[in-house]
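Q: What changes when nicotinamide-adenine-dinucleotide is included in the input?
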Amino acid sequence: MRVLVTGAAGFIGSHYVRTLLDGGYPGTEHARVTALDLLTYAGNRDNLPASHPRLEFVHGDVCDQPLLRELLLGHDAVVHFAAESHVDRSLRSGADFVRTNVTGVLSLMEACRSTGVPRVVHVSTDEVYGSITHGSWTEESRLDPRSPYSSSKAAGDLVALSYWHSHKVEVSVTRGVNTYGPHQHPEKLIPRFVTNLMDGTPLPLYGDGRNIREWMHVADHCAAVHRVLSDGRPGEIYNIAEGTSLTNLALTERLLALCGADASMIRRVPDRKGHDLRYALDSTKLRAELGHGPRVPFDRGLADTVDWYRDNPDWWKRTKQEYDDGEGGYGT
Ligand code: NAD
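A: The predicted holo structure follows.
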């Protein structure tokens, strides 16, 4: 089996590739992987093995149609992770978000159609449904994205699904909740707070910290994506959830405890514009249809993640020096 993975040098894409190459997904132990990534500020070549007999790394853009057509020949599947992924950056400028998250999906789907790739998974986010006060969103819920990031992801989802309806490209869409784990860029909440605590600098908590997010370990997110790739139905959307729901303040308190610090490290910063209050997904469909549920308990996953950042200061110190997040708080 040959799989092309886009965004393969990013947080979730690189976890997926490492697990695939390690034989972590039964039935695809011998898969050959083409890892495509533009290496934006968020991509890190060190997230992937330097060399591996079944890995080919390609430095390239999902908007580059001729490149995609050339690369895709002979591939059995595509898993599309590549995206601009940071809400706060999208509030400052949305152009790259529309380019990669919408035009990039069109470019990829068109290349899949013209080269006859048999199977595609387009990886998306719970944020396309917007904020919900009570209950949880199902796959049938209305799209109500609130930021340039989430609206560009929602548009990309529709473009991807249109290639099933119009051209019978066998694409499924996944919508996952907030994901955490090793190798996540320190612009995002958990790595930002953990590395700030290791540096002895304050934690910039947005507003009153009562925004609620559901957290899932990257291993569970990737396993669900692979399950959808193997057994999901084309033209269908699968929510990926059943993580742990917490306010940002409660999560911050857990991180403080794991790092041996106290609430004096919290510095309140003005809230993010249009900050969605609560996300919650219903993933009954994934469990009922594909028998998939999460495996990593939150407490263990969070403690292991903190340990990973403690053990890998070279990785995050270099990455943190290279980016400037201005006055903002963090991405969730
Ligand atoms: P990330 O920002 O860590 O990685 C994105 C990767 O895409 C980077 O390696 C970057 O270099 C690459 N990239 C960006 N533009 C590109 C382009 N034009 N061509 C090729 N490569 C390009 O993001 P992530 O957190 O790993 O998220 C991966 C996917 O999962 C995204 O589609 C995101 O919307 C989705 N998602 C993320 C989360 C989360 O909590 N992180 C939750 C749900 C869904």
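Observations recorded in class: The CA atoms of residues 182 and 307 lie 9 Å apart.
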